[in-house]
Amino acid sequence: MFVCYTCKGTNNIIKVGAFFTICNKKRRNLFSVSPFLCNFTKNKKQKLMIDYLAQNLWTLWAVLAMVCLVLELSSGDFYITCFGIGAVCALVASLFALPFWAQVVIFAVFSVLSIYCIRPHLVHMLDAKGGQRKSNADAIIGRVGKVTETIKAGDYGRMKLDGDDWKAESDETEDLPVGTKVRIIGRESIIVKVEKA
Q1: Structurally, how many domains does the chain consist of?
Q2: Residue 80 and residue 66: Cα distance in Å, rounded?
Q3: Position 144 in a domain
Q4: Using the 8-state DSSP alphabet, how is residue 58 labeled?
Q5: Which domain holds residue 186?
Q6: How confident is the model over 40-80, as pLDDT tens digits?
Q7: CA torsion 110→17→62→105, rounded to 10°?
Q8: Residue 144's CB: how many other CB atoms inside 10 A?
Q9: I need a surface site. Which of 22, 75, 84, 151 has the fewest CB within 10 A?
């Protein structure tokens, strides 16, 4: 697929790459952006620059995607990533010589779709919400184990849970003898608080 440009006064067209053609004389772009913007500029160099940018819109989308990637590294909430995905989709659309307005629509549609479809999965996978995941030590709360060393009232003893030995204390008024089933109700550092199950 080639992007076609018509040359005034000549039929000379030089094809460069798989997606671009360049005329060796004055050229008129088939993009709807360039003629519109060129009407506001009087300077020939400005017209050529606008014409160049209109011919290479893919670079705009590539730069936008890279900027989104860099900004996402500092934010970590995956909203900016979604706009980067939209920019990549617009980049692909620009390679097929779609008009600029269509590229902007594709950017907007794919950005919104990725916010609603892709972002929740990324957040869930990487747990960016924070504070909702329990550590392994906190996951034992509510589990039942056995006393391995008598837990005296108001003092410490030992209990076993899944093969792990824990220092335990109880608020019970009576001692918990060896073999008693106890439920873990809290944890402070390496000491668990238990009650009779």
Answers
A1: 3
A2: 11
A3: yes
A4: H
A5: 138-196
A6: 556 777 777 777 777 788 998 999 999 999 998 888 788 89
A7: -30
A8: 12
A9: 75
**Contact criterion met (CB below 8 Å) for 161 and 174:** no
User: Who has greater pLDDT, 14 or 116?
Assistant: 116
- pLDDT number for residue 132: 54
pLDDT of residue 133: 54
Alpha helices, H only, 13-170: 33-38, 44-55, 57-75, 79-95, 100-117, 119-126
Distance CA 98, CA 190 (A): 63
Number of Cβ within a 10 Å radius of residue 114:
21
CB 147 within 8 Å of CB 118? no
Q: Are 144 and 121 in a shared domain?
A: no
**Phi and psi at residue 153, to the nearest 5°:** -60, 125
User: Looking up tokens 């067209």, which residue turns up?
Assistant: 13
- Please name the helix (run of DSSP H) or strand (run of DSSP E) that holds residue 184, with its range, or none: strand 181-188
Q: What is the 3-state secondary structure (H, E, C) of 10-30?
A: CCCEEEECCCEEEECCCEEEC
CA–centroid distance for 197 within its chain: 45
Does 67 fall in a domain?
yes
- Which of 86, 119, 79, 84 shows the shortest CA–CA distance to 105? 86
Are 110 and 159 within one domain?
A: no
Do 42 and 95 lie in one domain? The reply is no
